[in-house]
Design brief:
The protein has about 90 residues and is mainly alpha-helical. It has one domain. It is about 85% helix and about 0% strand. The protein contains 3 helices and no strands.
């Protein structure tokens, strides 16, 4: 597997891990407060978790089908998503 694709897979997996942590935090807040906003955050985290998990899986299994020209873009998108989720987690904590 190309190193750029490995970066994309690793960061997509890390994104999934961050989203699991956010999901647990948001679910705890939603259970305690019963606020609609918190329930919305749980839904948001669930959808993004599904997206990140499917992205990591598709990158890992379909790596030979991606052109070399697309790999830097896939990696950058995964890294930027990781940075955004890390900031969201820091703000949430």
């Amino acid at each position: 597997m190309d190193p750029m694709m490995e970066v994309a897979v690793v960061f997509s997996t890390l994104n999934s891990a961050l989203l699991v942590v956010l999901l647990v935090i948001f679910a705890g807040i939603a259970l305690r407060s019963r606020a609609a906003h918190s329930v919305g955050l749980v839904f948001f985290a669930l959808l993004l978790l599904a997206n990140s998990s499917l992205t990591a899986y598709s990158y890992a299994t379909m790596a030979p089908f991606f052109g070399r020209e697309a790999l830097p873009y896939l990696s950058v998108v995964s890294v930027l998503e990781f940075v955004g989720l890390a900031v969201l987690l820091k703000i949430t904590l």
